[in-house]
Amino acid sequence: MTASMLGVLRPTIYRFKLGAFEVTTILDGVMLRDGPHPFFGNDQTAETVQAYATAHRLPATKMENGFAVTLVNTGAELVLFDTGNGAKRREIGCGNLRELMHVAGYAPEQVDVIAFTHCHPDHIGGLVENGAPTFPNARYLFGRAEFDYWRKGENISESRQATRALFMKVALPFGEQAAFLEPGNDVVSGISAVGAHGHSAGHMAYHVESEGQRLLIWGDITNHAIMSLQKPEWHVAPDDDKEMAVEIRKRILDMVAAEQIPAIGYHMPFPSVGYVVKSSTGFRWAPVTYQLTI
Ligand SMILES: [Zn+2]
Question: What is the pTM (predicted TM-score) of this model?
Fold first, then answer.
């Protein structure tokens, strides 16, 4: 008997313990794009970026962009960081968070808190499903500067008009019941917001600590394990303030490297958990192997 060809299969759920907490990453989906240039190395020539990709055994003109949502169960509360792409991108293979949550052992109704890193489409798209809140029992926490920026809608670039429209449709309606974070504020006991704007006007990272074990959920501080991590100074097209994003990227990567703590990056290769090691030219992503499960 000959076995059937079954197509591509990827890991989509990963869980580890951090002190008394359990941390789960879920792959909401993967998007195929042209690139890395000009998405990454936006201020570099196509030849430079393509040569860099090739030198790292990456395709020169195609890339995948993955979306990893994080869930932290503190024992007291289930905290979700961002909501994935949602139904809008389901036809291109994204928006799988809700379905995969069940596979991971959670129901959307169990989510107590949603903390947003920022309000770009791949982070807020999953807020609503069929016109109703996807996570009906959750409290919503947005960075105040982030929420205000998109709500006011001043100085929105042409390329971000669709982002603003989506924000107005799916995120703004939660504004009345939401709470707003300043850098340093607690999300719940053991989790606090870290100011990290640049990728967006009020982008937040989140520091998680339990029983002396620490982790940084860095959102979109850097969006490619090679391109914008080994070359943090290269401009990234979806960074709303490119110069500030470079500055914050270097600062956060420096901190994660110096403190030797694990990080979760929304767009790092799944399971999107790893360490940052300083190199002579920039940084290197060291994907997690058994450090957190041993
Ligand atoms: Zn993103």
Answer: 0.97
Centre of ligand 1 from the C-alpha of residue 123, in Å: 6
**How many other CB atoms are there within 10 angstroms of residue 90's CB atom?**
14
Q: How far is the CA of 2 from the centre of ligand 1 (A)?
A: 41
pLDDT digit string (tens) for 82-115?
999 999 999 999 999 999 999 999 999 999 999 9
- Where do the domains of the chain lie? 13-287
Distance 221 CA to ligand 1 centre (A): 9
Distance CA 245, CA 236 (A): 9
Please say whether the structural domain 13-287 has been given the CATH code 3.60.15.10: yes
In this predicted model, what pLDDT tens digit does every residue of 240-266 receive, in sequence order? 999 999 999 999 999 999 999 999 999
Q: What is the mean pLDDT of the chain?
A: 97
The structure tokens 């339990």 sit at 210
Please tell me the distance between residue 5's alpha carbon and the centre of ligand 1 in angstroms: 33
**Ligand 1: centre distance to CA 223 (Å):** 7
